[in-house]
Write a structure and sequence with these properties.
The protein has 80 residues and is mainly α. The protein has two helices and no strands.
Amino acid sequence: MKKLIFGTVALAVLAAPAFAQKSDKDDEPLQILEREKKQQADQVDRQYKRVMERNRRDGDTTAVRSDPWANMRGQNDGKR
């Protein structure tokens, strides 16, 4: 009986470090990469939406387009 108890205690002592290394916070490397990719994709999506919203607001106040070559052409050069 003493051998059985001693063997059980010895196994428990030897197995304790293995259980101590495994924690809920540690994930597989692929899970970590997947999470980082998702965070980067979300960040890019937020930046895109921010730029689109800014362009939508600024688009209403755009200046009239001008022709930079207008004074270089003659009166009938562009008309045929």
